[in-house]
Design brief:
The protein has a single domain, classed as 3-Layer(aba) Sandwich (NADH Oxidase). About 30% of the residues lie in helices and about 15% in strands. Strands 1-2-4-3 form a four-stranded antiparallel beta sheet, sandwiched between helices. The two termini are about 30 Å apart. The protein binds flavin mononucleotide. The site of flavin mononucleotide (FMN) has 10 residues, from strand 3. This is Nitroreductase.
Length: about 180
């Protein structure tokens, strides 16, 4: 059931050395390919990073929040081509990335989204610029996030949802707070 899956999905940042199988990785990406995109334009692209040295380098793309990528067995960089969908590329990527997180959880894998926007590499260049050089990307691409995936080496409790009453409002009856 979908509720069980969303309860199970947590951000996992510690991983065992066990390999994520090609089959599982393929399934995760296949699921992302089912994500909706505005006007069905599909600006989303994926780069698979498996090489340990590259993962280690990648874990330094920003000062905080990407270190866990070092221990991941595989990472997926989610990019968009701004020329294909200049107004909706970020939204399209977010949905696809969410599908990846849920697909990983469904396969009992751990995964976490590392953000790129507004982050800086320790050299002072933006994380975006660092990643453009790292992946040798043309200007038209935005790196939206990097998702580290592996077999979990930490256990987390079920997801506790936000309070319904605090965030859901009835049109005409409620003032949104
Ligand atoms: C847009 C977005 C950006 C995030 N960026 C990072 C990040 O850079 N590094 C990180 O370790 N976790 C990152 N996370 C994971 C969140 O910290 C995590 O989802 C949140 O604390 C809730 O925990 P949960 O995923 O276990 O429910 C990000 C999540 C989202 C949705």
């Amino acid at each position: 059931m979908f509720l069980e899956l969303v309860e199970k999905r947590r951000s996992i940042r510690k991983f065992t050395d066990e390999e994520v199988s090609e089959e599982d990785l393929r399934e995760i990406l296949n699921i992302a390919l089912h994500a909706p995109t505005a006007k069905h334009r599909n600006p989303v692209r994926y780069i698979i990073i498996r090489d340990k040295k590259r993962l280690e380098e990648l874990s330094h793309y920003k000062k905080n929040g990407a270190a866990f990528l070092r221990g991941a067995n595989v990472a997926i960089a989610v990019l968009t081509d701004r020329e294909i969908a200049p107004n909706t590329n970020h939204q399209d990527a977010s949905i696809a990335a969410t599908f990846i997180l849920l697909a990983a959880a469904d396969l009992d894998l751990g995964a976490t989204w590392a953000n790129v926007v507004d982050a800086k590499h320790e050299s002072g260049v933006t994380a975006q610029k660092f990643l453009h050089e790292f992946f040798d990307l043309e200007d038209k691409f935005d790196v939206e996030c990097v998702i580290g995936i592996g077999h979990p080496a930490e256990e987390k409790s079920e997801k506790v949802p936000f309070e319904y009453e605090e965030v859901v409002f009835e049109d005409l009856n409620d003032k949104v707070k």
